[in-house]
Design goal:
By secondary structure, this protein is an alpha+beta fold. The protein contains 17 helices and 23 strands. The strands form 4 sheets. Strands 1, 2, 3, 4, 5, 6 and 7 form a 7-stranded antiparallel beta sheet that branches. Strands 15-14-13-18-17-16 form a 6-stranded antiparallel beta sheet. The protein has a 5-stranded antiparallel beta sheet with strand order 9-8-12-11-10.
Length: 779
């Protein structure tokens, strides 16, 4: 009969199944992870080892090919050394044969001469010896007009380059009739003139044999490509290619083909490297490649199959899987028994909890504490004991829960009310007095007061107190101050720590500071008033009851304190703004200057009423634009002033301070001194400029009058000195008239003598002074 679990909801797993299933799942994931990591680490180690060994092998085999080429090149060099001294036909043949006989790696050789260089009557001379299939030497004369060896690449390239060269592979038609490469060495006569070219031919089949015989694992292969990517030789596992004709590049546009072609292109460029790719046969390979060098353009590649390399890693993977499955089977059996020992007691606890939950409304208080008995001597027994304790505490908890929620809600409502009222009172002192008054009333406290913090003096100053209704001190707050570092003070402690401080029995706390005005204080709570990390002050509340404050009360008061701190900061900012505005207004009024504020971007300008008043206009008679300022400039000052403004804005001038004439509404001109400063963005471009206009008409008029009086005095002194040497009144008047004309700018000057101005009554100096003043007035 199938056992059922009445308290197990439909669609959920029993813990007896879930527990072992979860652990087994974790074990499976762990085994998979370990297997994957082990295989990956193993593959990585194998790959790294292969990379080093395969690159070393490629370098070694490339060096072998280079050694083979170097050895055959030395024969061509030796032959070129003796060729210069040969003058006899048989001697040239004999030199070639003797050099070729012991060197079986060389297929053929010739000493070919420049036209008429061997003998003056012979244009061609190129005796050639090569090996027959039987190994004997056979002679051929390449010096014929049909073959014309002067135009053959093996001769022409060596001649043109003036260097030892190895020809690209070619089929020697008319010579050895095989694919070969040729070392060509130019030689010269005593004057340094080219005399001919000595060669050593290598049957390319020998090089191909070297490549085919290179062993790369069991299924790998070696391949050799030239500077055009043409396959010069390849191992038996490398696929079917026409040697010397087919290219190693693949025309397939797939990603795998692109990787292979990229490698071939790197080989063609002469690079060395190691790559992981798929070859043209579709096999995943590791390939190490190394250039042959010696100006051949050849490159050797060694391809190693990944399947062959990773075979040990695959065996490790299979072994790990086998042991993982075996361990899982054993662990599953063990976990099944373990889970049953855990879930059986839990089912008993669940049954007790369900019964308690469903029927608690029908139980009496004594039935609530009915116990569940489990003896397992482990954490499950601890859990059962905790449930028993829980049932004992549940009655008292349920009975007080609703009241505590209601109290909390009421406290938060009080905080919201006080904060709202505080934010609506702009006056700082009135706002603080309202806060402490409402705090004392709404929370039923013995007393509440607020201290503000002075950063300069490091002192907390009491600024507002909230007493019980009817207290004789209500409406006052005293002048108490508390130093920040005072130890015996809850207020100072809260300020220093930036944390609430609770003392529920003040008389037993050594850090409590008694207040004679509050003799009935039994418990006290101080909370810092913070805006971010900035300390604004401390709010302190007190109760007549011991143990009146809890951590929850501290949280409530901290919330209220944060709201009050923001309100204090806002009120201070409003006060400071008003003070600065008043100070600015008084300064502007005292200076009697006109103020202007120019938005350089929009070209709009604010002109103060005094600015317009200076030129006789009312507030509404001028528009707010730069054009209005420009239109009032005196024509003679217009360009100079605008140039001054532009020079300042572009940085050519360090300050803007200029004097000019401004058109007044009555038609006259007023002298103005303009000063200002510009605000600039991060690039230095001005976007705003403001300053003042000062009416300096009176001072300019006074300066002009003083200058004119000084000029008159100077002219009078000069005339007086000139007439001191005259004898008669007439001569004095003539001199005076002449000098007066100079003083008046060479104007025609008539001096008349008043009959009343007789000698002894008026001196000539007095007469001239009168004349100057009369002339000045007439001008």
């Amino acid at each position: 009969m199938k056992k059922s679990f009445p308290f197990l909801p439909k669609g959920r797993f029993n813990l007896r199944v879930k527990l072992p299933l979860s652990i087994i799942t974790l074990l499976v994931l762990s085994f998979i992870l370990v297997t994957v990591i082990s295989v990956l680490v193993s593959k990585s180690a194998l790959t790294e080892t292969l990379k080093r060994s395969l690159a070393a092998e490629a370098s070694l085999q490339a060096e072998g090919i280079r050694s083979y080429l170097t050895w055959t090149r030395s024969m061509a060099v030796d032959l070129s050394t003796v060729a210069d001294g040969i003058t006899d036909e048989e001697a040239s043949k004999d030199a070639i044969a003797k050099m070729l006989t012991p060197n079986e790696q060389v297929f053929g050789s010739t000493i070919s001469y420049e036209p008429y260089a061997f003998k003056p009557d012979r244009k061609y001379w190129a005796p050639y010896y090569s090996r027959s299939k039987g190994g004997t030497l056979q002679f051929a004369q390449l010096g014929t007009s049909e073959y014309d060896y002067f135009q053959q690449p093996w001769y022409k390239i060596a001649k043109d380059s003036n260097a030892i060269i190895l020809s690209p592979p070619y089929f020697d038609a008319g010579g050895g009739e095989i694919w070969m490469v040729t070392w060509s060495v130019p030689f010269y006569d005593n004057t340094g003139k080219l005399k001919g070219v000595a060669t050593a031919d290598i049957a390319f089949s020998q090089t191909q044999d070297i490549v085919r015989k290179i062993a790369v694992g069991e299924q790998g292969y070696a391949f050799l490509v030239d500077s055009n990517g043409v396959i010069l030789g390849i191992g038996g596992q490398g696929g079917q290619y026409k040697i010397m004709e087919d290219s190693a590049l693949i025309s397939d546009p797939s990603q795998q083909a692109r990787a292979w072609n990229q490698m071939v292109n790197d080989m063609v460029k002469g690079d060395a490297g190691f790559v992981d790719l798929t070859d043209p046969q579709g096999k995943t390979m590791f390939v190490a490649y190394e250039p042959i060098g010696m100006n051949t353009g050849w490159s050797l590649g060694l391809a190693y199959p990944q399947v062959e390399l990773f075979q040990p890693a695959t065996q490790l993977q299979n072994t790990l899987i086998f042991f993982s499955v075996l361990i899982l089977i054993i662990a599953s059996v063990f976990l099944l028994f373990l889970s049953r020992s855990i879930t059986r007691p839990l089912q008993e606890i669940t049954s007790w909890a369900k019964l308690f939950s469903q029927e608690k409304t029908h139980f009496s208080a004594s039935q609530y504490v009915k116990s569940v008995h489990i003896k397992t001597n482990d954490e499950i027994q601890d859990l059962a004991d905790a449930f028993n304790q829980l049932s004992g505490d549940l009655v008292s908890t349920l009975s007080t829960l609703e009241q505590r929620v209601a109290d909390r809600t009421k406290s938060l409502a009080n905080v919201a009310e006080i904060a709202t009222i505080a934010s609506s009172i702009p006056d700082l002192q009135k706002m603080l007095e309202t806060v402490v008054h409402l705090t004392q009333r709404r929370f039923g406290l013995y007393h509440a007061h607020i201290f503000t913090y002075d950063e300069d003096t490091q002192v907390l100053q009491i600024v507002a107190c909230g007493y019980k209704e009817g207290d004789e001190h209500e409406g006052t707050h005293g002048t108490a101050t508390i130093p920040m570092e005072q130890e015996q003070s809850l207020v100072a402690r809260a300020a220093r720590t930036r944390q609430p401080v609770i003392v529920n029995d003040v008389r037993s706390d050594p850090g409590w500071l008694p207040n004679p005005l509050l003799p009935d204080t039994a418990s006290e709570l101080a909370v810092p008033l913070l805006v971010g990390d900035k300390l604004i002050g401390v709010m302190d509340v007190q109760s007549e009851q011991a143990n009146a404050f809890t951590e929850s009360d501290a949280d409530i008061q901290m919330t209220l304190g944060s709201q009050v701190a923001v309100s204090v900061q806002n009120a201070r900012q409003v006060q400071e703004s008003r003070r600065l505005q008043e100070q600015y207004t008084l300064a502007i009024a005292g200076a009697n200057d006109g103020i202007w504020d120019w938005n350089v971007v929009t070209n709009q300008v604010f002109f103060s009423p005094r600015w317009k008043e200076m030129v006789g206009y009312r507030e509404d008679e001028l528009n707010n634009g730069f054009a209005d300022f420009e239109a009032l400039l005196h024509p003679d000052d217009h360009d100079r002033v605008l140039a001054h403004v532009n020079d300042y804005l572009t940085g050519k001038r360090n300050e803007y301070d200029v004097e000019f004439r401004f058109h007044h509404k009555d038609g006259s001109y007023r002298w103005i001194r303009a000063r200002g400063k510009a605000l600039r963005d991060e690039k230095g471009a001005p976007y705003r400029m403001a300053g003042s206009h000062t009416d300096i008409t009176a001072s300019r008029t006074a300066q002009e009058t003083i200058a004119k009086r000084a000029a008159e005095q100077e002219a009078l002194n000069r005339i007086t000195q000139s007439i001191q040497g005259t004898i008669t009144i007439e001569s004095a008047l003539q001199v005076a008239a002449r000098e007066l004309g100079h003083a008046l700018g060479m104007k025609p000057t008539l001096v008349t003598l008043d009959p009343e101005a007789l000698p002894g009554k008026r001196t000539p100096r007095q007469l001239m002074s009168d004349q100057l003043h009369d002339s000045d007035n007439s001008n």
